[in-house]
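Journal club prep — side note

Before the paper discussion, L.F. wants everyone to see what a predicted structure for a comparable chain looks like in token form. Sequence:
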Amino acid sequence: MGSVQINHQTGPGNHEYRLQSGGAGYYTYFDGVPKWYSYDVGAWHMIALNSQEVLKEGSPQNNWLEQDLAATSSDCVLAYMHYPLYTDGEYAPGLPKVRPAWADLFKARADVALAGHDHIYARYATMNHLGTQTSVGIRSFVVGTGGKSHYTQSTTTRTALEHIETQDFGVLKLTLHDGSYDWQFVNESGAVLDSGTAACV
């Protein structure tokens, strides 16, 4: 496959749903976009979840996710949603409403979870859906640094936290390879403040 670069965008969030009931403006602007969906990029399976909608076990979105994960044959899986399960900013320790999705993703050996909401950049070691560091788990990124404002770091920091930025706006740049991925957090001045590479599990 070579490599593919993607820009991190976590789909509809609390502001879209707060401004208009059910995020109507978001869905009007992105005409025809489903509330949750998946697609393939090369060797990667990408899952767009909607953390504004119900994710609990037995819900339509959760049932869809379980079926989608069962159907993919991709070795590398990336999921993104607005709310982070784990974060060390203003919303620490995280938002548990997305835990059922994380449980299914962990069971299916997903590799990466992207989220926003908290106005920080944070990268975590691989964890399971209960917050335990595991050698085979999901590496998560919180990227809420689009330019609105900055939040401060929590006074009780999660042990899995590997890198955090609370003073810079910026973007997460992911380069997806067959069987691995690279990441860079690039601030608005173009400086790379965090980078690394990891293999799919």
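L.F.'s comment for the group: The mean pLDDT is 92. Keep this in mind when we get to the figures.
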